[in-house]
Specification:
globular; 29% helix; 400 residues; seven-stranded mixed β-sheet; single chain; alpha/beta; three-stranded antiparallel β-sheet
Length: 400
């Protein structure tokens, strides 16, 4: 199959439409061709394309910054000489003067299919800036490795943030190109927009169910996104960034597990099976031990739960990562009613709100976990209408 970048590089007519125009590129380490050459170098080698600027999102163009709220500086590309502007530094929206350095921006970002992954918000901010300045935006589309399933509650009004660009659920089931179409419609943006579509993407086909396993190499789009298993789990395990539990940063399996020194993972798994066994389809939960080398609980032996989604019996349609992680929280709250579960700090520049609420686009998930009387049926009743509404809302913008 071909990603959008591959199509652009192989199509003379497409590249010809960029001739005589100043071109910028928004990219990160996973912006690579099928032979693993980086988009910057591949595009710079095209005689029709004049690269005059580049942009790096969160974690930087080089993908070197591990954690949230670690900002990247602007710099000049050491090989090609053009400026590289940081969209996760002093600002997160493009400065007006940056917009004057190009005529069309190519966006080539590998997403994980989750509302909280900040490349989604960066896409919106660039679209808004392009509409303001009369610039063109081309998205060089890439697969959504989490595939088409939808899960989670819709972000509530007033909870917009850098990890919540608009009223969508946690797991949106769209590509970046498709999301751009939805953003333009939702926010009524007047912008010259084009999606360079993929060829041969089959999001319902196994074994990848969104990612072309066996056809394309995985390159980390951010430092703690090391493989397809993480991408499948992420719409649930990302909530751990708002909890005191470790999400496995500082281990070799980040965002595929959770744990802490003061819980009993076997007891947690057993309680999850008692509470809502129907929420645990598709995956296998295994109790294990880990010791983070950095981040939460650094240097401490943690009792943990690993979520396995790479076994032969993996069921993509049945796996619901947001509910699995919600159930993990609920089991811990039931086993340890006074457990200090929620972190309190300015998560992704959202001040005065608990990170778990910012992540979920409202307090509903946390309130359900903390309400001793609330059961799985209550969360389902609050969530299913949102999921059904999104399935319908996104339909007009699906390209594949």
């Amino acid at each position: 199959m071909n990603f959008g970048l591959d199509r652009l590089l192989s199509d003379d007519a497409l590249r010809g439409q960029l001739k005589g125009r100043r071109v910028a590129l928004l990219a990160h380490p996973a912006s690579v061709t099928k032979d693993l050459g980086h988009a910057v170098d591949a595009l710079a080698a095209c005689p029709e394309i004049e690269l005059t600027a580049a942009f790096g999102p969160q974690h930087g163009m080089k993908g070197d910054l591990q954690d949230n709220m670690m900002e990247s500086p602007d710099y000049r590309d050491p090989v090609h000489g053009f400026p590289v502007f940081s969209l996760y530094g002093e600002v997160r929206r493009p400065r007006d003067e940056w917009m004057e350095t190009f005529d069309v921006v190519l966006i080539d970002l590998q997403d994980l299919g989750c509302r909280i992954y900040t490349y989604v918000t960066t896409l919106l901010y660039v679209l808004e800036a392009a509409a303001k300045h009369g610039k063109s935006v081309w998205v060089l589309d890439r697969p959504n490795p989490a595939g088409r399933p939808v899960e989670g509650q819709t972000l509530k009004p007033g909870w917009e943030s850098f990890v919540g660009a608009g009223p969508m659920p946690m797991r949106h089931g769209m590509t970046m190109g498709e999301l751009g179409l939805w953003f333009i419609d939702r926010f009524r943006l007047d912008v010259d927009y084009r999606v360079v579509e993929m060829q041969g993407w089959a999001p319902e086909a196994g074994p990848g169910f969104g990612w072309p396993l066996g056809q394309r190499s995985w390159v980390n789009p951010s430092p703690n996104a090391p493989n397809l298993s993480m991408a499948r789990c992420y719409a649930g395990t990302v909530m751990l960034e708002g909890a005191t539990l470790s999400e496995g940063r500082g281990t070799t399996r980040p965002l595929e597990l959770f744990g802490a020194p003061d819980i009993d993972a076997r007891a947690v798994i057993a309680e999850m099976h008692v509470l809502a066994p129907e929420w645990l389809g598709g995956c296998v939960l295994r109790d294990m031990w880990f010791e983070p080398t950095f981040h939460k609980h650094v240097g401490k032996l943690c009792s943990g739960v690993q979520i396995h989604v790479d076994h032969p019996g993996y069921d993509h349609a049945a796996f619901r990562p947001w509910r699995v992680q919600a159930l993990g929280f609920k089991a811990i709250r039931r086993l340890y009613p006074d457990y200090d579960l929620w972190r309190d700090f300015p998560y992704e520049y959202a001040f005065g709100k608990l990170p778990i609420d910012v992540i979920n686009g409202g307090p509903g998930l946390r309130e359900w976990v903390d309400d001793a009387a609330a059961g799985p049926g209550d969360l389902d009743a609050a969530t299913r209408p949102d999921e059904a509404a999104w399935e319908e809302a996104r339909r007009a913008f699906l390209l594949y």
